[in-house]
Specification:
This protein has 6 helices and 20 strands. By secondary structure, it is mainly β. The chain has 2 domains: 193 residues, Jelly Rolls; 230 residues, no CATH class. A hairpin with a 5-residue loop joins strand 10 and strand 11. The chain is globular.
Length: 485
């Protein structure tokens, strides 16, 4: 038996430790009512990753919105690219990364560390606007900056020291107290969110080149740097780590899922939960069962999830196609809420319009279940510019099987469609799925953002119009709404 340690010394016993889920355009016709039209991303090339330092763990290979379950590691977003590295950093040594800002919505570096023997928790992090450009270059992520700037170079340093009171610019401090006198393992992920139209995963720029500097000022680059760092990177290492730190074992997951009658843990209406911490992921499984009294003992501290980015806040909810009037599990789910304001970048806008927006990025994905994250996959994702909105800023999203897609669930009718997928939870229930919403870098003034939910069970109260209302119905029922729904 594994123990889930809660706050205040609370110990919640379960069969396994829970780990968090992490992560060519054609302009559509104008949305009904004069709202915002949607873009329609096509193939996002991965781009060559011919480097000993970075590896693409094949998290999101192939066309956007296409199912790639066998490689979709760590529950990412299909509109992002992830590049992973791990290396040993000797005492006094540094790694200097020379890169160019990508043509994309967002970029970040995040390092990871173990907590209580479990790896994958966010440590040091830097995101795009926090990184000062090299002399003569432009940071295109700054509001009002030229996004098409030619000179876009930057330099960051990975230091094995403990973070000082006054950290140096463009520096990731990865040292741990009492360990700076020995080699330290560094795990790091470079994330690039939604490259602009026509650009590959790295956002149309080369991946950053490393320079290794020893404590004695010796300098190595390229393959020599990797050799001295004992570089280990890529899919095999990340997959091994995930297998070692699985979320719920399949047997434990099924036991929790089946502790109440189906469609448990899905509910009608859809119940959305903010991600607080690993242990809190048990709440939907305890709700409505004999274990419901344990919910108050689950911790409420907000910590980074498993290989997540600290720039994001997450909302999740379980859904099931058996809910609704169709007895053959061909129900559809209609989601309705207000879309946070966000930058527009996909169509290669030349000037950054991010000033005053509520979020940097928003997306919704489906994931199946929290069992075995190494094999967990998403059937589909939608990001903010992919979702049309009406004049008041509201979106309508239909989630269904392809054959159940209503004929009016189209951009032309102001409705986004997302594939429910047929894999289900991967543990014998093909109709059950897990939806996940990301909000990135919520503005402090955006009082209805996911990150403003600081107490469990206040999601709807805090988010108000931005809290998705889910309605189950049949294809025929939705089609009766007509095109300007």
């Amino acid at each position: 038996m594994f123990s889930l340690r809660g706050g205040g010394g609370v110990r919640i016993t379960a069969r396994a430790a829970v780990v968090a889920l992490l992560a060519g355009a054609v302009a559509a016709a104008a949305a009904p009512g004069g709202g915002t039209p949607a873009v329609a991303p096509g193939f996002m090339p991965r781009g060559p990753v011919n480097t000993c330092f970075w590896r693409d763990p094949q998290i999101n290979p192939g066309p956007i919105d296409q199912l790639h379950q066998e490689n979709n590691l760590a529950g990412p977003d299909t509109d992002t690219a992830y590049y992973y590295t791990r290396f040993q950093l000797p005492p006094g040594a540094t790694v200097v990364l020379h890169g160019e800002y990508p043509h994309a919505r967002f970029m970040s570096y995040t390092t990871y560390q173990p907590i209580d023997g479990v790896s994958g928790f966010p440590g040091a992090a830097l995101y795009d606007t926090e990184i000062r450009p090299d002399r003569g270059s432009v940071n295109p992520f700054k509001p009002g900056a030229r996004r098409d700037a030619v000179k876009r170079a930057y330099t960051i340093t990975v230091s094995g020291q403990v973070p000082p009171a006054n950290p140096a610019r463009n520096t990731l401090y990865v040292g741990h107290a009492g360990m700076t006198g020995q080699s330290q393992l560094v795990e790091m992920i470079l994330r690039i969110y939604r490259p602009d139209r026509g650009y590959d995963g790295p956002g149309g720029v080369p991946l950053p080149d490393p320079t290794y500097r020893t404590a004695n000022a010796a300098t190595y680059t390229g393959n020599a740097a990797c050799a001295h760092l004992h570089n280990q990177s890529g899919e095999a290492e990340l997959a091994k780590t995930e297998r070692a730190e699985e979320a719920l074992t399949p047997a434990a997951y099924r036991s929790l899922r089946d502790s109440a009658p189906a469609p448990h843990p899905a509910t009608d209406p859809v119940r959305w939960y903010r991600y607080f911490n690993n242990q809190r992921l048990l709440e939907p499984f305890f709700a409505g069962t004999s274990r419901a009294s344990l919910i108050t003992s689950l911790p409420t501290n907000i910590i980074g999830g498993y290989y997540s980015t600290p720039s994001n806040a997450y909302l999740y909810g379980y859904v099931d196609r058996t809910i609704g009037p169709d007895h053959d599990a061909h129900n559809i789910l209609v989601l309705r809420a207000k879309m946070p304001t966000h930058p527009h970048t996909y169509d290669r806008e030349s000037v950054n319009d991010g000033a005053g927006t509520q979020v940097r990025f928003w997306s919704i994905c489906n994931y199946g279940s929290i069992a075995r994250p190494a094999t967990r996959a998403n059937s589909a994702c939608l990001f903010d510019e992919r979702v049309p909105t009406d004049r008041a800023g509201y979106y309508t999203i239909v989630v269904s099987l392809p054959k159940d897609r209503p004929r009016n669930a189209t951009d032309r009718c102001g409705v986004a469609w997302m594939n429910w997928g047929t894999a289900g939870d991967g543990q014998g229930r093909a109709t059950l799925d897990l939806l996940f919403i990301r909000e990135q870098l919520d503005s402090p003034s955006f009082t209805h953002g996911i990150d403003k939910v600081t107490t469990p069970d206040t999601e709807q109260h805090v988010m108000e119009a931005y809290y998705p209302k889910g309605t189950y119905m049949t294809k025929a029922q939705f089609q009766k709404r007509g095109c300007n729904a």
